[in-house]
Structures are given as structure tokens and as C-alpha cells.
């Protein structure tokens, strides 16, 4: 677990090193949150949010693109939920 925590914290340190609010900073934060799901699954929410933030910072007037991404994320969650329920 120590390795996972370090990888997550290193991603957040990289985000701070970027300095300004850019797509790269949001992507680094998304990575840190995604890695952290190995020890606390609710970090997945942060990863999804930062991914949307990176997308929004990349593309002006990105409402449709953000909706499409959020729908994709939602479908992935439903698939994982279904897979988990079948394994019980």
C-alpha cells in the first residue's frame, strides 16, 4: 500500500509543479485520484471529476463533449456494478 500512496502523492506533486490550472494539471490530479482508488474506492469520483476538468480546460465550449464523457463514465460504472453483482 505504501507504493500506491507514494504514486498517488507523486501525481499530485506533479500537478502542483505545473503551477497553473491547465489540462496537464487536471490530468495529473486525475491520475493521482485513480491510483488512490486501490486503497479507497471513493477516490474514483475524484478521478472522474478531474478528467472532466482536464477536458473542459482543453476544449472551449465543450458542453456536448463533457456530457458525452460523463455518459461514458456512467455506462462504465453500470457495467462494473453489473459485473460485481454477477460475481456474488
Short synopsis of the structure:
The chain has helices at residues 2-18, 23-36, 43-58, 63-86. It is an all-alpha fold and 88 residues long.
Q: What can you tell me about this protein's structure?
A:
With 88 residues, the chain is mostly helical. The chain has one domain. It has four helices and no strands. Helix 2 runs antiparallel to helix 3. The mean pLDDT is 91.
Question: What's the SSE blueprint?
Answer:
Layout: H1 2-18, H2 23-36, H3 43-58, H4 63-86
Helix pairs in contact: 1-2, 2-3, 3-4
Tally of discrete structural domains: 1
According to DSSP, the number of beta strands is 0
Tell me, briefly, the overall form: flat
List low-confidence stretches: none
The largest pleated sheet is described as: none
Helix count equals: 4
Relative helix content: over 70%
**SSE order, one letter for each helix or strand:** HHHH
Q: What percentage of amino acids are in beta strands?
A: under 5%
Distance between the termini: 26 Å
From the helix content, strand content and strand pairing, which structural class follows? mainly alpha
Please compute the radius of gyration using only Cα atoms.
Answer: 15 Å
Average pLDDT metric: 91
Amino acid at each position: 500500500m505504501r507504493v500506491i500512496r507514494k504514486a498517488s502523492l507523486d501525481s499530485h506533486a506533479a500537478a502542483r509543479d505545473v503551477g497553473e490550472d491547465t489540462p496537464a494539471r487536471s490530468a495529473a490530479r486525475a491520475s493521482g485520484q485513480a491510483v488512490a482508488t486501490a486503497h479507497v474506492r471513493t477516490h474514483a469520483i475524484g478521478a472522474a471529476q478531474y478528467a472532466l476538468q482536464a477536458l473542459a480546460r482543453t476544449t472551449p465550449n465543450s458542453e456536448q463533449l463533457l456530457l458525452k464523457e460523463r455518459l461514458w463514465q456512467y455506462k462504465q460504472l453500470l457495467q462494473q456494478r453489473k459485473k460485481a453483482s454477477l460475481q456474488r
